[in-house]
Design a protein that fits this description.
The complex is a heterodimer of chains A (261) and B (272). Chain A contains 12 helices and no strands. Helix content of chain A is 80%, strand content 0%. Chain A has 2 domains: 1-40, no CATH class; 43-250, MetI-like (MetI-like fold, Orthogonal Bundle). Chain A has 261 residues and is an all-alpha fold. The longest helix of chain A has 33 residues, at 58-90. The relative contact order of chain A is 0.12. Chain A is elongated and about 80 Å long. Chain B is built from 8 helices and 10 strands. In chain B, a hairpin with a 2-residue loop joins strand 4 and strand 5. With 272 residues, chain B is α/β, with parallel strands linked by helices. Chain B is 39% helix and 24% strand. In chain B, the strands form 2 sheets. A 6-stranded mixed beta sheet of chain B has the order 6-7-8-3-9-10, sandwiched between helices. In chain B, strands 2-1-4-5 form a 4-stranded antiparallel beta sheet, covered by helices on one side. Chain B is globular, with a radius of gyration of 19 Å. The chains are: A mainly alpha (261), B alpha/beta (272). The A-B interface holds A 152, 154-155, 157-165, 168, 172-173, 176-177, 180, 252-255 and B 58, 60, 78-80, 82-84, 86, 88-96, 103-104, 107-108, 135-137, 151-152, 155.
Chain lengths: 261, 272
């Protein structure tokens, strides 16, 4: 299928969806409105809410806060994941000792940590960053751990036979292998950084997209909730697009297995 | 007056501890020498431990008994005089062909600015001058072997250890690679220990062909000198009368081992 046709079809899905939503929430069918505006709002109201946010400029502050939180969570979580992942993979004893605890913490639904973080770090951005970090850390950690452990035996032997010292093996073999695993999970970890930020905001904050949605919900402003959701989706898609660009640059040496990106 | 010995395995025995605690003896009392400038091929049925023997010579494996001497010095740790060409893909997938070749020099402390032009020269001499910027996954199997060959040879090792290096390649590419190897080798005649299961390849390439018995506890059971004149062309040499005579002679010994090895591998499968 050609690109323009595909794009046209994709747009068509959106148009049909929005039109259906608008019609069903405003025009009575057999004397009954199928999507009561109180619960479902309607596309026009949602759209005008989004326009209002952007024209008045209030949204930028919230977007900025969420973006900052996500980025911090991603950077800190990744750095921690890489370091600990490397450490565990190179020190099997440490890994064996900590294994049950890592599993235990990872099994915990991270949302329940939000109140603790709010208590420890306050309602500012750091409690959200912390929540995001707990999500990002484990993804990166497991990938790096795997990446270092599953370095091909042959490639490793080859490095040794070429005369590499432990340090050179680290730099030329383990490190690139670990990074490639980390980058392959980039979409997931960036996504989780955003999830951490938004959920944290939703559960208690004074700014951010999660806060906007939570506020709207608090006053039964369904149009506001939907508007927040749409802005959030667009925000995540933009970030994901950025990740794809970065990934394409960093993983040129990899064969493309899937058609993603 | 004899040429110095590059590799000497003296009654080397290789054993592994299996998961259930039993000890599996892969190679028993292997005695093998490779003189400087000599091209020796080891041939044996699958699973006879010929790669194991190569790993012992490389220092990747420690023999359970016996000695390994490299240029008359006992080998401790990795064999620093040897370059190793692996059967499986061993290139660094995250490095371009050029960087893969250059790394052999960079590891020794050669500055990158000096290593890169020399790597480019080596890529050209294995016929890949135009592929310097490609990553391994963008190269064919034969091209990857060429890069691997350049990666090993750029370090100018005194000994070349090759573990069925052309095994994964198709028949034609193997012959082309064989000729390339002979060309490069004839320039400075390193000592070569070349493991293969292909008797024809062994005779066509080597000065001496060593036959191993079927495993476990396999031993070296034959040692033939190949008198075919050099320089050789692998395509032509196979038509030579002497080649055929030698092939028949060695095959008569090897055949029994191949059948034994086959029988054992099927029995082992039935036992499981």
């Amino acid at each position: 299928m050609s690109r323009p046709t595909l794009f046209a079809l994709q747009v068509l899905v959106a148009v049909v969806g929005i039109v259906l939503w608008q019609v069903l929430s405003t025009v009575p069918v057999f004397g009954k409105i199928l999507l009561p505006p109180f619960f479902f709002s309607n596309p026009l109201d949602v759209f005008s809410q989004i326009v209002k946010w952007f024209s008045s400029g209030v949204i930028w502050k919230h977007l900025g806060i969420t973006l900052t939180e996500s980025l911090l969570a991603f950077v800190i979580g990744s750095a921690g994941g890489v370091l600990v992942g490397f450490w565990f993979a190179r020190q099997p004893l440490v890994a064996a000792v900590f294994d049950p605890y890592v599993k235990m913490v990872n099994a915990l639904p991270r949302v329940v940590l939000a109140p603790i973080f709010a208590l420890w770090l306050g309602l500012g951005i750091w409690s959200k960053v912390a929540l995001g970090v707990t999500l990002v850390f484990f993804i990166v950690f497991f990938n790096v751990y795997q990446g270092v452990k599953e370095v091909s035996r042959t490639v490793l032997d080859n490095g040794r036979m070429l005369g590499m010292s432990e340090r050179q093996l680290m730099r030329h073999v383990y490190w690139p292998s670990a990074l490639s695993w980390m980058f392959s999970s980039l979409h997931t970890s960036v996504g989780f950084a955003v999830v951490g930020a938004v959920v944290g905001e939703y559960l208690g904050s004074a700014a951010g997209l999660g806060y906007l949605i939570q506020q709207a919900e608090g006053v039964f402003d369904v149009a506001g909730v939907f508007a927040g959701m749409f802005v959030l989706s667009a925000f995540v898609i933009l970030i994901d697009f950025g990740v794809t660009l970065v990934e394409r640059r960093l993983l040129v040496w990899r064969p493309t297995v899937d058609g993603r990106g | 007056m004899s040429t110095p010995t590059a590799v000497a395995l003296e009654d080397a025995k290789v054993a592994f501890r299996l998961g259930d605690g039993r000890v599996y003896t892969a190679v028993e009392k292997a005695h093998l020498t490779v003189a400087q400038g000599e091209f020796v091929a080891i041939v044996g049925p699958t699973g006879c431990g010929k790669s194991t023997l190569l790993n012992v010579a490389a220092g990747l494996l420690k023999p359970a008994a016996g000695n390994v001497r490299i240029f008359d010095r006992p080998l401790a740790g990795l064999n620093r005089d040897a370059g190793y060409l692996f059967q499986a893909d061993a290139l660094f997938p995250w490095k371009t062909a050029l960087d893969n070749v250059a790394i052999g020099l960079e590891v020794q402390g050669t500055p990158r600015s000096e290593a890169l032009p020399r790597a480019q020269q080596w890529l050209t001499s294995v016929g890949l001058g135009a592929f310097a910027g490609r990553y391994p996954h963008m190269l064919s199997g034969g091209q990857r072997k060429r890069v691997a060959l350049a990666q090993v040879l750029i370090r100018d090792p005194k000994i070349l250890l090759m573990d069925e290096p052309f095994g994964p390649l198709d028949a034609q590419t193997r012959q082309v690679m064989g000729n390339l190897l002979l060309d490069l080798w004839s320039a400075d005649r390193k000592a070569v220990l070349f493991v293969t299961h292909d008797l024809e390849e062994a005779i066509a390439l080597a000065d001496r062909v060593v036959i191993m018995s079927a495993g476990p506890s396999s031993r070296i059971i034959g040692d033939w000198r190949v008198g075919l004149p050099r320089p050789r062309d692998i395509f032509e040499v196979r038509l030579d009368k002497e080649f055929h005579a030698l092939h028949r002679e060695i095959w008569s010994v090897l055949k029994d081992e191949v059948m034994k090895g086959y029988a054992q591998s099927t029995q082992a499968a039935e036992a499981v």
